[in-house]
Input
Amino acid sequence: QITLKESGPTLVKPTQTLTLTCTFSGFSLSTTAVSVGWIRQPPGKPLDWLALIDGTDEKRYSSSQRSRLTITKDTSKNQVVLTMTNMDPVDTATFFCAHRRGVIFDFWGQGILVTVSS
Amino acid sequence: DIVMTQSPDSLAVSLGERASINCKSSQSIFYSSNNNNYLAWYQQKPGQPPKLLISWASTRESGVPERFSGSGSGTDFTLTISSLQAEDVAVYYCHQNYGYPYTFGQGTKLEIK
Output
């Protein structure tokens, strides 16, 4: 059974760096066939894909957010970490991590709402 | 970037009636070498993560009711619910996984008339 859970701060101040952790179970992030991605969703707005990492450590990023994002993995801990720099109130969103099977996001975490406010 | 445009933005359908949601991509998301359209449909209910309904434009996920179907190819796709049930009230998103960066449609809110 595949599960994922996001953790991290729920409130950050403008200009701070956000660090979120996705802890997963039920699969191993050790091949190209499996990856973990991050997707965010501002309140009442659509889904916005941010980043992806696969088992070979290949990484992909959103064009618009590339300069602010870093995605890493710790295979021994079954974790994927996303950092996003220079947070702004417009970055307030629910952040989801998701398991990707091939090219399809099939299992998602419940999400974590991160509010950016001073 | 591939832009995904859904229509309509919102839709109200009577229980038992058909609901159709359209999704158009700004470029073809059909890969001829494997004959696949790189298009998925998700259902999202309030306070929940998206749920995968359909992948490869028309392959229903295990456990998804048969009233949900996907069709289309190239740049134009449709999600159809053949007989709307109360539990289908949700926002529906199309998603292209053909090329990076991955992109989603703006969502279609489905309600009961």
